[in-house]
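Practice set, problem 2.
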Amino acid sequence: MKKIIVLTFILLAIISCNSENNHKIEKKSVSNIMVDEIGNEVEIPEKGSKTISLAPNLTEIIFFLDLQNQLIGNTLYCNYPSQAEKIAKVGDLLTLDYEKIVELKPDIILMTIEGNQKNHYLKLKDLGFDIYVTNPRDFNGIFKSIIAIGKLFGKEKLARGKVDSLNSIVQNVSKIKNNGKKAVFLISVRPFIAASKNTFINEYLLKTGLENGVVSDKINYPVLNPEELIRIKPQIIILPKSMKNEFEAILNENVLLKNELKTTEIISIDENIYFKPGPRFVEALLDFSRKIK
């Protein structure tokens, strides 16, 4: 599981704008065009059209908007809600079953920058599929993706209403102040990989009054060596609960690091909720606000 979590964040693909479509899949008539979150034009499918989700957060958005009856395929890691596990599986984060996808004949496929790969996108485009790509970089970006998927399937009004409810919770949490305590949010411990200020994970810190000790303009999830962690001197370290024991083992191996972090508060979180840029991020934010009080 740890490897999958790390790969989810380091296999980031910058998907190119357009590729040739050889129309191997028969297209249905459409009446409107949307622009996805990487700037590509996408045909809005007809009412009741079928979709495949290639990321867990997108699957969660589909269920959140009560669109599950239109979901005909997803990945092995789409496990929430429990009904998502019963949907036909078309691959994981690293490999796709193209034959299965062709067999299912989706009207549109949902992908995301964080987690999906450029070669998968290009291959699916070459097979003739319409693809909508999301790219949420902060909480507002997640809201934008929810509304866009709602619009794509004729449920924009519902999506906007749900987003308004979620946003009201975020605004209330944003009133919390922690005097700018310096924090490091680790997504991996061997090696240390942290979320920088250019990620949606950073907003957990921002919204609760914490300062991200990891500053990187070019790398969203930089690798840190122990010396860099010591230099940052975080007052709080947040890490996945599945990695807590491993982190403690690392501290026992490195006496200097252990001594330098002896006053640092260690907070463990549920990565299955925190690391998915979908509607449950609000649940994660509420949980985080309670943990740091």
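Problem 2, part (b): a different protein.
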Amino acid sequence: MRRWLLVLVLFLAPIAVFAAMVGADRLFGAPGRGYGYVVDVDLPPAEGPLGLPPIEGPQDASRPLVVIDAGHGGKDPGAGTGPLREKDVTLALARALRAELLKRGGVRVALTRSDDRFLVLAERSSIARRLDADLFISIHADSTGDNADASGASVYTLSDKGSSQAANKIAARENAADVVNGVNLGKQSETVSSILVDLSQRDALAHSQQFANLILREGAGRIPFRERSEQSAAFAVLKSPDLPSILFETGYISNPADSDRLTSPGGQATFAEVTAKAIQVFFARTRNMPGPNDPGFQY
């Protein structure tokens, strides 16, 4: 019995001493003692919703906003193997288009990604909607593996039925960008996924088709197009109600001629000039803004 009492005393004694020290400090210690490490920091006011990219261009909210989406990125390299990867080509083209639009003026511009980061498909169109964009352009570059004969650009709009079997295959490949290691990172609710071409989208779809045809017109003789008409398929990244959206497959990086065009400064400049001109004409028609051929045009 004595031995157990001795063990108990030895065990409880340190706890009792510690409790006594805490009690004495609470009763007799200076207020706030021991808490001098707390530092008050004045944070700057928030400039907008967290996670949204900056908007560049005129500081005038009445100016139309173009959101440019560089396809793929981060752990999703997209098409291509070796040193030439789709995610790098699309980012370079997106930056070239942004620079051209800012040089011409008249519109505001934002990129969904300005570096090598991964975004699920839903995030890309969500950024455009949250920024209240007036036009959404998703840039891609295709690949056919060993078949170097396929070449040329194509412009796509949204449809629940593809304009061709090839369009459906391309849409399926691009929509698979959210699947990483067999896990769908961008699975959306049934309501969002079911949005294709309903009444709320008809006006946006008509504007999307109009813009797509302007790219084809402005690019004639400057960009080699695989299809001379606007194509359509169920691209997940284009499912944005009330937002004119197109997906620009700029060429095949598996084709040497297309690859040289898409990676050269001259080819990227041509892409940017053609697309920027189409954007100017589009807003001249849909927003009653001055067009590039109007007297006194000051874009």
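Answer key, part (b): The radius of gyration is 28 Å. Confidence is low (pLDDT under 50) at residues 43-50, 166-171, 176-197, 295-299.
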